[in-house]
Amino acid sequence: MKPKYQQVKDYIKDQITSEKLLPGDKVMSETELIQVLDVSRHTVRKALNELSMEQVIETFKGKGSFIKDMSLDKRSHNRQSKVIALVTAFINDTIFPELMNGLEQVLSEEGYSIMLYTTRNRVDSEREILQKIYEMDLAGVIVEPTKSALPNPNGRFYEGLKAKGIPVLFIHAYYHHMDCDYVIVDDVKAAYEACSYLINKGHRKIGGIFKSDDLQGHKRYEGYLNCMIDHGLHINEDHIMWQATEDEHAIFNNKMLLKDFVSRLKGCSALVCYNDEFAIDLMEELEQEALQVPDDISIVAFDNTKLGDNYKVSITSMDHPKAYLGQHAGRQLLRMIEGEKGIQEALEVSIHEKSSVKALQS
């Protein structure tokens, strides 16, 4: 069963589709909707509020709600706007600078400027940003989603932007429950190749560290699982570690938790790590326990960053097309501004061999 407020929304949208309600027509009053649909006033107000955010209706105090002319609203959007909003999770990670440079290069050539916002991977911050940019005259929006593996409460704001005719393009990940345009890395295939690389080096007992609130973390876990299953290898839950954004520093600063995970790695010869940063934090703890990479345990990570290059042991890592992803996302958004729809791409990446993997004898 759909939530009752969704049933109210569907009832009004069905009246629009069947042309029982036309642009400018008045919607039933709250009292009438309560009587006809047998729902509470709170349910009706929630439904009307979301329809207003989605630009389906306009509500005037003391007069009621009226059906909006969607085509007129889209035509009224100022296509002369040359401002793009970029909403990202973090600006201090190792990927963002190159991605931003690539994006800025493509958009500036066409006369666009970028307004930058950061959510710190918090849904409340994302909501505040979306509320702010909803009121702006924008040509388009590029978003790195917040906690992309989890249900997101801000969907109505994205629907509102689209209803205004402002294209929204997601990068790195997207929301499963929304119809999204996106440009991402094929994380499932990348993790499969990372695990296959270790298997080809003779490793059979392979663990992993993945991010729990991030769609990339789930897809990398999926690729790891698929590879282990395809090769008929046992998956040991003791060799798997999950962590959420808020727990990242707590876990890697909590020596007891790290010691517990390291103790669970007994018999494990290799790990697939969510990214280079996770790998370095773990390697430092392994060193405290007199375990060396790659002599005692091998590691393959993701993103191929300078951070991984400059550590004591350079980290074998799946590449991330940082600058190219920014350039490509910029080009795709420009196509969307011109009216193209249904852009959903997953970019393939390759492995960069360095020093963190040891080949085992057969």
Class inferred from helices and paired strands: alpha/beta
Write down the oligomeric state: single chain
Shape: elongated
* Rg calc: 24 Å
Write a brief structural summary.
With 362 residues, the chain is α/β, with parallel strands linked by helices. The protein is built from 14 helices and 14 strands.
Structure description:
It is built from 14 helices and 14 strands. It has helices at 4-17, 30-37, 41-53, 70-76, 96-109, 123-134, 155-163, 187-200, 215-230, 248-253, 255-264, 276-288, 306-309, 322-337, and strands at 57-60, 64-67, 83-88, 113-118, 140-143, 168-171, 181-185, 206-211, 240-243, 270-273, 298-303, 316-319, 344-347, 351-352. The N and C termini lie far apart (56 Å). With 362 residues, the protein is α/β, with parallel strands linked by helices. The longest helix has 16 residues, at 215-230. The strands form three sheets. A six-stranded parallel beta sheet has the order 4-3-5-6-7-13, with helices on both faces. A six-stranded mixed beta sheet has the order 9-8-10-11-12-14. Helices cover 43% and strands 17% of the residues.
